[in-house]
Amino acid sequence: xxxxxxxxxxxxxxxxxxxxxxxxxxxxxxxxxxxxxxxxxxxxxxxxxxxxxxxxxxxxxxxxxxxxxxxxxxxxxxxxxxxxxxxxxxxxxxxxxxxxxxxxxxxxxxxxxxxxxxxxxxxxxxxxxxxxxxxxxxxxxxxxxxxxxxxxxxxxxxxxxxxxxxxxxxxxxxxxxxxxxxxxxxxxxxxxxxxxxxxxxxxxxxxxxxxxxxxxxxxxxxxxxxxxxxxxxxxxxxxxxxxxxxxxxxxxxxxxxxxxxxxxxxxxxxxxxxxxxxxxxxxxxxxxxxxxxxxxxxxxxxxxxxxxxxxxxxxxxxxx
Length: 320
Fold this sequence. Notes:
The protein is of the alpha/beta class and 320 residues long. It contains twelve helices and eight strands.
């Protein structure tokens, strides 16, 4: 651990100090920690006029991939809605399709978006490209059923937080390289992009307590990759390895200054710009990993969410 590192935002620091500490994430504690990464959907839907549909679609190997489809109950069926395809976080080892779903539900409220959230298989039970392929095939199904779902195929947004942000980046690379489906934008929230785990920010947040430390990150990546190293690691799994970031849809990336993923996220945005692409990057001073998901009412979190919402509003208006 380096001796100097950005401090947490003062208000976030108070909230974090009051949060019960989890045991270190490793193979011995994973089963104990997993239940805390999931949250019930019903309280979030209370008071919202939302139609909910739960389905499964088959992966290429026949494994069912669960999808939750949420759309405004008051939507005009004659008007195709934007779609947010949501990929949850959890270090690729925990969480489910309801994790952090309050973020895209805000877009359902604001933009009348249909939210589709995918339950991909988790590591270490599944590994390699299985997770990102599950996410990709769920997206393909959604776009193939746009008419049935009332979705505008020109306004499909792929988004995710943390591990879900990394998987969203991988899915978007896959869609580009396979020439389907069309994606209007990607929103990557504190994305987990680089299995090498060797940046300055990664070293800064090594050791000690924290929401997501370098050691936790290493465990997540080892769970997914197993013995794979070097050329055996797919850029769809670790998107920072992608040699070419041209031809991607407009991209939004945000992260905190006080988190492991800061530098790999900055680098990803920089490389999109270098390839002539369009990306917006926000690094929130003093934000730790997942700050706006954990404490959405904190002033810095409210600012981060408002800025993200404003960006998405502009992007969706451009493709009407």
